[in-house]
């Protein structure tokens, strides 16, 4: 269980960095909504990585197979997470409705293709390097981080339900509220 948690947290953090990099590269007017209050995490990336890593080896053997099935899996997770955020919390962290090949603004063809390429090219070498490091983290550290993560998640979910706006999830926004 510890390895699953650390894999989720690590890829959620990588997703946060990817979002920040994308926002800087595209000169986005608003910083990306990361999904948690204090922790620099985008949970959709962590869930997507876990789902792709759970695929049967027959579907992930080689770049093209991993790109296809990994991209489809990551897109399915992205759709599901968006649906849950929308239906359970009444918030939208992203909206692809202006992009080509979008489905309900939740997923779109350009990003699905990007997830496929990213999954096929980056996941195998990153996972080979990370796996042993994450597996060696002591249980006491995992429990401590789990407490912080859980507290952050509970506060974030409550704020989202109350405010209905992902913009509330920052210390700066809380200071103004």
Number of separate structural domains: 1
Radius of gyration: 17 Å
Distance between the termini: 37 Å
Alpha-beta classification: mainly alpha
Low-confidence stretches: none
Query: Can you summarize the main beta sheet?
Result: 2 strands, antiparallel
Mean pLDDT: 89
User: What's the helix-strand series?
Assistant: HHHEEHHH
Query: Considering DSSP H and I runs of 4 or more, what fraction of the residues is helical?
Result: 55-70%
Strand order of the largest sheet: 1-2
Shape: globular
User: Approximately what portion of the residues adopt beta-strand conformation?
Assistant: under 5%
Number of helices: 6
Number of beta strands: 2
Organism: Oscillibacter valericigenes
Keywords: Membrane, Transmembrane, Transmembrane helix
Pfam families: ABC_trans_CmpB
Protein name: ABC transporter permease
């Amino acid at each position: 269980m510890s390895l699953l948690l650390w894999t989720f947290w690590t890829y959620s953090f990588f997703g946060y960095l990817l979002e920040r990099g994308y926002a800087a590269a595209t000169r986005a007017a608003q910083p990306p909504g990361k999904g948690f209050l204090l922790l620099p995490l985008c949970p959709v990336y962590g869930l997507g990585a876990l789902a792709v890593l759970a695929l049967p080896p027959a579907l992930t053997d080689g770049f093209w197979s991993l790109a296809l099935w990994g991209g489809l899996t990551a897109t399915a997770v992205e759709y599901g997470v968006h649906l849950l955020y929308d239906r359970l919390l009444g918030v939208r962290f992203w909206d692809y409705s202006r992009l080509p090949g979008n489905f309900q603004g939740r997923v779109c063809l350009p990003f699905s293709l990007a997830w496929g390429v990213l999954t096929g090219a980056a996941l195998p070498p990153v996972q080979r390097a990370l796996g042993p490091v994450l597996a060696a983290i002591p249980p006491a550290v995992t429990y401590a981080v789990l407490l912080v993560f859980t507290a952050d998640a509970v506060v974030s979910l409550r704020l989202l339900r109350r405010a209905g706006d992902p913009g509330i999830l920052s210390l700066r926004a809380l200071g103004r509220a």
